[in-house]
Design a protein that fits this description.
The protein is of the alpha/beta class and 476 residues long. The protein has helices at 21-30, 73-89, 104-116, 131-137, 143-150, 159-162, 187-192, 204-214, 232-241, 248-252, 265-279, 290-298, 312-322, 358-372, 374-384, 397-405, 409-418, 423-426, 433-448, 453-462, 465-474, and strands at 63-69, 94-100, 123-127, 140-141, 166-167, 170-171, 174-179, 181-186, 224-227, 283-284, 302-308, 326-329, 345-352. It is 44% helix and 13% strand.
């Protein structure tokens, strides 16, 4: 990203495809508000730039900040603590009023309705794959506008996290809750199968070799050596670890992506491997429900699985309660020796500019800055298990103690630090990315149920052609 120097579990949702992309087209065409200047930030439009830095200092009374988020349960409790701390520190000047807007899909749907009624919140949390839509809607002020205005040194922010939310090295939104995928394995089952528990598999061939000793069909101690949910995010990771891009136009960062690439040889190789593993009784087909795959791993039915860092807490508890030892390793590559790495997931914060007063924009920025600070991020990390966006958060005494108690989390830390930032590891920006993820799941599921892998993935990719074209034509 351009700079002045420059868990809680990830929600696994089923993505609803709009009844007609024409509705989306009309909507986008109608919401191209603002001056389109973008004020920096690498967008192709935006709702103006940052206001004057002293606008809030000159204001009288308390400025209210409406904040919509998608956190529930423990994550919501931790977020409310942060909001309360910010309000206390800014008493008499700023008051953040947080509102649960529903799960990620619900939140973005509610936001779209708010654009039409000109009632958007000052700050909103939007999931990673909603980024292209947020840019194209032209309602927000890029974070880079505030960073450039304040000449803010953001060297503390993790570049492999900010990279996802950046175009042309300029930051559009502020990362907040971040997760990473890793390989989890049952060390106890590895020992029982005569495998080295300190040498987990790191490519597809090695996973198969291990599964041949772990699986019940081959005389091993587990029902299946491998199993993971039919989840498009996992396929995206394999493509990225191979150094390949998920969509064209430089993963949608050199221009609007016009097609997906998950029907290319590398991803088809993954699907073919997965299909053969299931056919040979070495892998379980747990379907699309991520909770089913998680439960199978926790119970010892699966020896190896792929999941988010957000599951570390749950898996650690299951291992402790079940009397087995948990292991974690980097996300595997398709083949050994490739130099790619995984893509971060989660959500980021967007500041709305269209139809908002300058004092609200500035108050929103101060809140967002607070959430990005190292102490705040350390508290958020410890409380939820999400990866901190701040490098300094990892050096906070409480965070050091947390990771001593949870040493497997350092696997993700080292994986993130060792991943070279590239367009492949930044991830794909696509206006219909939720639909693309679902389509890839359709293809993978069809293959696991017997369809030729190439045929399944080609059909899935082609099913998106009209949707992508219609979306792109709707964007000014």
């Amino acid at each position: 990203m351009k700079t002045t120097n420059a868990g809680g579990p990830r929600r696994r949702l089923r993505y609803a495809v709009p009844a007609g992309l024409a509705t989306v087209s009309l909507f986008l065409a109608a919401c191209g508000g603002g001056d389109g200047g973008g004020g920096g930030g690498g967008t192709e439009g935006g709702s103006g730039g940052a206001p004057a830095a002293d606008v809030l200092d000159k204001a009288t009374g308390v400025t209210s900040v409406a904040f919509w988020h998608a956190m529930d349960g423990t994550n919501a409790e931790e977020l409310n603590k942060l909001v309360a701390a910010f309000n206390t520190a800014n008493k008499g000047k700023i008051e953040v009023k947080s509102t649960y807007a529903g799960k990620y899909d619900d939140a973005i749907t509610k936001y779209k309705a708010a654009i039409q009624s000109k009632s958007t919140p000052d700050v909103i949390q939007i999931y990673d794959i909603g980024s292209r839509f947020m840019i194209d809607a032209k309602q927000t002020i890029p974070m880079q506008s505030f960073i450039d205005r304040d000449k803010l040194d953001v060297a503390d922010l993790q570049p492999n996290i900010t990279g996802y939310y950046s175009i042309d090295d300029k930051l559009n939104s502020m990362p907040f809750n971040t997760s990473m995928p890793v390989l989890y394995y049952n060390k106890t089952l590895f020992k029982e199968a005569g495998l080295d528990p300190e040498n987990p598999p790191q490519d597809l061939a090695a996973i198969r070799t291990a599964a041949e000793k772990l699986s019940k069909k081959a005389g091993g101690p587990a029902d299946y050596g491998f199993g993971a949910a039919i989840y498009g995010w996992l396929l995206e990771q394999f493509i990225a670890t191979d150094g390949k891009e998920y969509c064209d136009q430089g993963n949608g960062r050199d221009g609007k992506a016009t097609k997906v690439l998950f029907d290319q040889p590398e991803s088809v190789e993954v699907v073919k491997w997965w299909q053969q593993m299931v056919k040979d009784g070495l892998a379980a087909n747990t379907g699309r429900d991520t909770k089913a795959a998680q439960a199978a791993f926790k119970s010892g039915q699966l020896a190896i699985t792929l999941e988010s860092t957000g599951q570390l807490g749950g898996y650690s508890k299951a291992a402790k309660d079940g009397g087995w030892e948990l292991g974690a390793a980097n996300y595997p590559h398709i083949k050994a020796g490739t130099e790619g790495g995984p893509i971060i997931g989660g959500a980021s914060l967007w500041i709305n500019g269209e139809s908002h007063e300058d004092v609200n924009k500035e108050a929103a920025w101060r809140f967002v800055k607070f959430l990005a600070e190292k102490k705040t991020q350390s508290q958020w990390h410890i409380g939820t298990g999400y990866f901190p966006i701040s490098k300094g958060a990892l050096d906070e005494p409480a965070d050091v103690d947390y990771r001593k108690a949870n040493p497997l989390f350092d696997v993700a830390v080292k994986q993130l630090e060792s991943t070279k930032l590239s367009k492949a590891t930044q991830g794909c920006l696509l206006g219909v990315m939720p639909q693309a993820r679902k389509a890839s799941e359709d293809g993978l599921e069809a293959a696991l149920n017997g369809t030729d892998p190439q045929e399944a993935m080609t059909k899935a990719a082609e099913s998106l052609t009209a949707q992508i074209s219609q979306y792109n034509s709707s964007v000014k």
